[in-house]
Design a protein that fits this description.
The complex is a heterodimer. Chain A is 35% helix and 12% strand. Chain A is α+β, with helices and mostly antiparallel strands. In chain A, the strands form four sheets. Chain A has a three-stranded mixed beta sheet. Chain A has a two-stranded antiparallel sheet with strand order 2-3. Chain A has a two-stranded antiparallel sheet with strand order 4-5. The two termini of chain A are 23 Å apart. By secondary structure, chain B is mostly helical. Chain B contains 15 helices and two strands. Chain B has a two-stranded antiparallel sheet. The two termini of chain B are 27 Å apart. The chains are: A alpha+beta, B mainly alpha. Chains A and B meet through α1, α3, α4, β6 and α7 of A and α1, α2, α6 and α7 of B.
Chain lengths: 296, 394
């Protein structure tokens, strides 16, 4: 009787060992490097240049047909407190009352090089599309909000107020030939649009040219595998809501583990075959036992 | 299997007071579900952009399906280890599993914002094969169907002796088919939970950067799998104890004590992996920081360990009261672990908070009430419980 049972247990032990092994080995090894696609576009936001005029927020609403969020202003003017179903783009202010340190920060989708929301999405409503823009297609969206669970920057927002809701997020004005409305309207060039490679070069040049002015780092160059929206600032980025994330893309760990277990679906199919064999064997045995006892 | 052990319908009145009470709760939930679809999720739930997943996912789906792993848990032992003597446990366990998974599926439909997009499911070329959620969704859907098919002999046996000729014909024709395909179904019934119960853990790996380090480990899938087997066993013990108390069934302590032995290596493995993982990742200091996260982790670990101690010896396992209490601890431990990973460890930022709304709580409890009512009705109508002289019925 032992063989099939023993082999079944063996396979289960092997499967467990594979899982533990993968999990442990993925802890330290390097992630396969993700490279931004050559045509990747993005934005460069320079917090030292921003004057907080919020013209970009108005332009964004207009370009994307977003109804203004007037909940905090008694129904009078657009006044979102954070990114939400009425705000794909927002200017926030950070101020330390002790030191008087202060900075504006513009928040919108970061257009990650390897985005968690795209990895999460069941039917590909979130897609890394043309020019690396992370786009959203409501026709494929089931409204599960797993993209919100995955996004390390809390960017995708859900239309909680609607019976037929969608996800709301910046798509880099992919419907406009001129590029993002926010970049077009910014009066001081605090946010500019362009190819990621050009923006990155520009950012590094600014860092070199004004060494005392900036925190010496381009946020988004490496964080979570790189983002297509890049930031320069004079205060620590985590104070602006841009945490000190590692350089591995967010989906990397889960794809490594699931990818190993489900590679080519070999393990599940083999396990099924084995389980079915054990089942059939058990039944034959109990059948023959029954007939020995003289039962039908 | 002799005649005495063959499952039989319990019979008796269907619409007793407990069933009607439970049905009222289910009815309230039903009305609230309609309301939720009219007003949207914002007005009916406490969910928000920081906590987009709440009670319906953390309890109904993630905890509920683990509690419904009784069928899986017992089947693993009965079929793989071929302990035929535990066969009588299978059908009742399958019924709870089938109801639990059906409710989880229903909860998903209520929770998602655009459920009609599910029509996309058959178009496999549209699938994002990297999506863990897709794997979980497909697996849970298939498994729910498999569970009802595994139960189909119970319905067909009853159809065969029905007073309606049409039912008799259906029963006569389909019962042999169902019995023939049972080994193939049972194999699927073991493969699918192995896949999706572990993947429920993998789901939260994607929230990695915002997950508290005490729970943020690549071993989440393995820990979810191990704990769901323990929870499934716990649920079967509790269910058995309740049938003994309320339905006057003969206690199955002997059988359950036997299965309980398997919990020892399982709990040992779970606790060992958890602690070694924390040590390897250098999180012992965080474990004893005595903040919210450390206290929650310690409670989880203590619950698992206490259940292990209570099941340590054969004598303890054969003590029905002790077995029941240990089972409660197992279920609580696994449920807490799941709530912690999905709600406590998940930290979207300081400006966000979540506590389920009254609607969410009433819908969840109404669905559970409906499940219990369905269970009672089903065991009265169909041969689920191993036959024995019935005494009283609720």
């Amino acid at each position: 009787m032992g063989i099939s049972r023993r082999s079944a247990l063996k396979v289960m032990a092997a499967a467990t060992a594979t899982m533990v092994g993968t999990a442990l080995s993925t802890h330290e090894t390097q992630a396969a490097a993700v490279v931004p696609r050559p045509d990747a576009v993005g934005m460069l936001y320079d917090a030292t240049r921003c004057i907080g005029c919020k013209a970009c927020m108005v332009a964004c609403n207009e370009a994307n047909n977003v109804t203004p969020d007037t909940r905090a202003s008694g129904g009078l003017w657009d006044m979102p407190v954070d990114l939400n179903e009425h705000a794909k783009n927002i200017i926030k202010v950070y101020r330390d009352p002790g030191t008087g340190e202060q900075s504006f920060v513009k928040r919108q989708c970061m257009h990650c090089v390897d985005p968690a929301c795209v990895a999460a999405c069941m039917f590909g409503a979130m897609k890394k599309g043309e020019k690396g823009i992370v786009s959203y297609n409501p026709d494929l969206c089931i409204g599960c909000r797993y993209c919100q669970m995955g996004c390390p920057f809390n960017v995708p927002k859900f239309e909680w107020s609607k019976a037929i809701p969608k996800i709301v997020k910046c798509e880099l004005c992919r419907h406009r030939i001129q590029g993002p409305a926010c970049c077009e309207v910014c009066p001081v060039g605090a946010v500019i649009y362009g190819k990621r490679t050009d923006l990155l070069a520009d950012a590094h040049q600014r860092l070199a040219q004004y060494p005392g002015r900036y925190v010496p780092k381009v946020y988004g160059e490496h964080e979570v595998g790189g983002t297509q929206v890049l930031y320069l600032a004079h205060v620590n980025f985590d104070k602006l809501g841009l945490p000190a994330y590692g350089n591995k893309p967010v989906p990397w760990r889960v794809e490594m583990i699931q990818g190993t277990i489900y590679k080519g679906f070999v393990v599940p199919v083999a396990l099924y075959g084995l389980l079915a064999a054990v089942m059939l064997r058990n039944r034959d045995k109990s059948d023959s036992a029954k007939s020995k006892e003289g039962q039908p | 299997m002799n005649e005495y052990e063959r499952p039989q319908p319990l019979g008796g009145a269907l619409f007793t007071r407990p069933v009607i009470t439970l049905a009222v709760f289910a009815g309230i939930a039903g009305m609230l579900i309609v309301w939720r679809f009219i007003v949207g999720l914002g007005a009916s739930t406490a969910l928000n952009d920081g906590y987009p997943w709440g009670l319906w996912i953390a309890f109904d789906v993630v905890t509920g399906t683990a509690l419904s792993c009784g069928g899986y848990s017992i089947a693993l032992l009965v079929y793989i280890l071929n302990r035929g003597k535990y066969h009588a446990l299978i059908r009742p366990a399958l019924v709870t599993s089938a109801f639990g998974y059906t409710i989880a599926g229903l909860s998903v439909v209520i929770d998602v914002g655009r459920p009609w997009i599910a029509y996309q499911l058959p178009f496999f070329w549209e699938w994002n094969v990297h999506s863990v959620l897709l794997e979980v969704a497909l697996c849970i859907m298939t498994y729910t169907i498999v569970l009802w098919l595994e139960l189909s002999p119970a319905f067909l046996e009853e159809a065969r002796i029905s007073s309606y000729a049409m039912f008799r014909r259906i029963g006569d024709f389909w019962l042999p088919v169902a019995e023939k395909s049972l080994p193939w179904l049972a194999a699927l019934g073991m493969l699918l939970p192995t896949m999706h119960q572990s993947s429920l853990g993998s789901l939260m790996l994607l929230s990695g950067p915002r997950l508290h380090p005490l729970w943020k480990t690549s071993l989440l899938p393995l820990l979810f799998l191990l704990s769901c087997i323990a929870m499934g066993f716990g649920a079967v013990v509790i269910e058995g104890a309740l049938s003994t108390k309320f339905l006057g069934r003969k206690p199955e302590t002997d059988m359950l004590a036997g299965v309980g032995f398997a919990m020892l290596p399982l709990l040992g493995l779970y606790l060992g992996i958890r602690l070694i993982d924390l040590a390897v990742r250098g999180q012992f200091a965080a474990l004893f920081a005595f903040d919210l996260y450390s206290v929650m982790s310690l409670i989880e670990l203590a619950l698992f360990a206490a259940a292990g101690v209570m099941l340590a010896t054969d004598r303890l396992r054969r003590d029905a009261g002790n077995l029941f209490r240990a089972a409660m601890l197992l279920v609580l431990a696994g449920a807490l672990y799941r709530f912690d990973v999905f709600l406590v460890a998940f930290r979207p930022g300081p400006n966000w908070s979540y506590f389920p709304s009254v609607t969410e709580i009433l819908v969840t409890s109404g669905l559970v009430a409906g499940e219990i009512a369905g269970y009672i009705v089903l065991i009265k109508l169909f041969p689920i419980m191993a036959g024995e002289p019935q005494t009283a019925a609720a």
